[in-house]
Design goal:
Blueprint: H1 6-25, H2 29-45, H3 49-70, H4 82-125, H5 140-155, H6 164-172, H7 174-177, H8 185-193, H9 202-235, H10 242-273, H11 291-297, H12 300-311, H13 321-339, H14 343-360, E1 364-366, E2 377-379, H15 381-400, H16 404-414, H17 422-428, H18 436-445, H19 450-470, H20 474-479, H21 485-501
Parallel strand pairs: 1-2
Helix pairs in contact: 1-2, 2-6, 3-4, 3-5, 4-5, 6-8, 9-10, 9-21, 10-15, 10-17, 12-13, 13-14, 14-15, 15-16, 17-19
Length: 513
């Protein structure tokens, strides 16, 4: 089920809110959790009922392992010595840790990477193993990482074993189930256990609606519009000139941001409607002046996971500067692979790993920000922003392209200096319904000006996108002051506009990851 769909907005969400607050009003707290988990499973299974078997199997195996970890004997009375009992307990925890990692990564590997692995085996060794063409379950990367964090901390003795229903609710809570944020058990399960927060909170609910609508507008009105030009452009990779390549990659850059940050805003807003706080996942990343700062602002919960469960266990920065740089590169390499089973994603992750390593070397700093950090020389913030934004855009050649050859072709297009007029074809894809009246008027008065009309519209869209990037983001806006009548009117208009536009429903980009 999609957030940007009629069934979600008019049926699923009202029913879920009524059931949740109704059951909590009558103090049926456990039943409320059961209801919320059941509705979340309906939300997930709406795409494909087979997905339910996969996620329930994953939940069941992880919960069983967590339960088995509670059965490890801690009483030294049956052992020859306290030391032996402690050693035995440590060994079994280690077994649980390894089992949990293999279990979760094994499930993720089978559904997401099996065919990619076999393809490369066939290519490298000239074998002919059959591909399974496995259907990738929605959100598997997200709910696998959530459970992996839980089972690792369980095996390390950092968290307790929770009730089954609270654990299921934590994993399946529908706002973050499909595309994040990647939540941790310690920030979610206590909220489901705390009955004092089950009462309807008008302030939290209204801010939730406000943030949800802003996120919906980012997705439906902006991301989906930019997608028209981006999808066309990447399908025409080998016929683009320099100018059209810039227009296409800018379109995809803004599509990706407004799509994913819009989803995160909607997820956090939905959480607030249920009086549940979800972590912030975006903090205006396109304002960043270095790639390192960019990754402190983009997909924050994914970075948090890799730092906590990969970077720090590898030694972090505790084992010297060289080891720290290697560890940094490793987490970005894995981040690229996490996004997809293709060498283009691996290349994208490796590029960002090298760029962050470069930042960590301290050769270049940003004036007004990095004076405390030793650097050979400093550059103005505006120049750092230009470099950062340009490098991120060019890295997306790999992220979006279907092959390495196509990605390299885009670099050739960009630096060819050619102009064939392809920009007009790219701009013409922005034939949205909002342009209908203007287009008809132009066709009547000056039909030869239609191409220029779409080009102007594209430039205005880019200007609007840059304007929004440097203004307070949706989350910041939702936290500012009271919801005045003016802001409420704006939200009503945006909601109606989005609902009218829902006839052209599109999925979120991160559903593919």
């Amino acid at each position: 089920m999609l957030f940007n769909s009629y069934i979600f907005i008019f049926i699923f969400l009202p029913l879920t809110l009524l059931g949740w607050y109704g059951l909590n009003y009558y103090k049926k707290y456990t039943l409320a959790n059961v209801f919320l988990a059941g509705m979340s499973l309906w939300f997930y299974g709406y795409f494909n009922v087979i997905y339910l078997a996969i996620i329930l199997c994953s939940i069941g195996l992880n919960y069983l392992l967590s339960y088995l970890l509670t059965r490890i004997p801690t009483d030294p009375s049956g052992a020859d010595s306290v030391q032996q009992a402690v050693s035995t307990h440590h060994i079994w925890n280690r077994v649980g840790l390894i089992t949990g990692i293999i279990l979760n990564l094994g499930i993720l590997f089978y559904f997401k990477y099996y065919d990619f692995f076999i393809e490369n085996i066939n290519y490298a060794f000239h074998t002919d193993f059959t591909l399974k063409h496995i259907l990738l379950p929605l959100g598997i990367s997200f709910f696998t990482f959530q459970q992996l964090s839980f089972i690792i901390d369980r095996a390390l003795g950092k968290c307790e074993h929770y009730s089954l229903i609270n654990y299921i609710t934590f994993v399946t809570f529908f706002p973050q189930l499909i595309a994040g944020p990647i939540v941790l058990y310690k920030e979610m399960i206590p909220q489901f256990e705390d009955t004092s927060g089950r009462c309807f909170n008008a302030a939290s609910f209204s801010r939730g609606i406000y943030l949800f609508v802003l996120g919906l507008a980012k997705k439906v009105l902006l991301a989906d519009t930019f997608a028209l030009a981006a999808n066309y452009g990447f399908a025409q990779t080998f016929s683009l000139d320099s100018i059209s390549t810039v227009a296409v990659i800018l379109s995809y850059t803004f599509e990706l941001y407004f799509d994913f940050s819009g989803y995160s805003d909607m997820a956090i807003g939905l959480g607030r409607m249920f009086n549940i706080e979800l972590p912030v996942n975006f903090d205006s990343p396109y304002r960043a002046c270095t790639i390192k700062e960019f990754w402190q602002r983009w997909h924050i919960t994914l970075s948090r996971f890799f730092i906590t469960y990969v970077y720090i266990p590898l030694g972090g920065s505790r084992k010297g500067r060289v080891r720290m740089l290697i560890n940094t590169f490793i987490i970005f390499f894995l981040s690229g692979l996490w996004h997809g089973a293709a060498w283009t994603y691996v290349a994208w992750g490796a590029i960002h790993g090298l760029l962050v390593v470069w930042d960590n070397l301290g050769i270049i700093g940003i004036k007004g920000r990095d004076e405390k950090r030793p650097a050979l020389f400093h550059i103005p913030a505006w120049l750092g922003w230009i470099f950062t934004f340009a490098l991120f855009n060019m890295s997306l050649f790999f992220f979006r392209s279907t092959s390495m050859i196509a990605a390299i072709q885009l670099f050739k297009n960009l630096f060819s200096g050619s102009f064939t007029g392809k920009i007009y074809d790219v701009a013409a894809q922005l034939d949205v319904s909002e342009m209908y009246v203007i287009r008809q008027a132009v066709d009547m008065v000056a039909p030869n000006m239609a191409n220029y009309l779409y080009l102007i519209f594209m430039f205005l869209l880019f200007a609007l996108a840059f304007y929004l990037v440097f203004k307070p983001n949706a989350y910041e806006r939702s936290m500012r002051g009271e919801l005045t009548s003016k802001r409420c009117w704006i939200i009503c208009i945006l909601l109606i506009w989005c609902i009218v536009s829902l006839s052209q429903v599109s999925t979120f980009l991160y559903f593919n990851f």
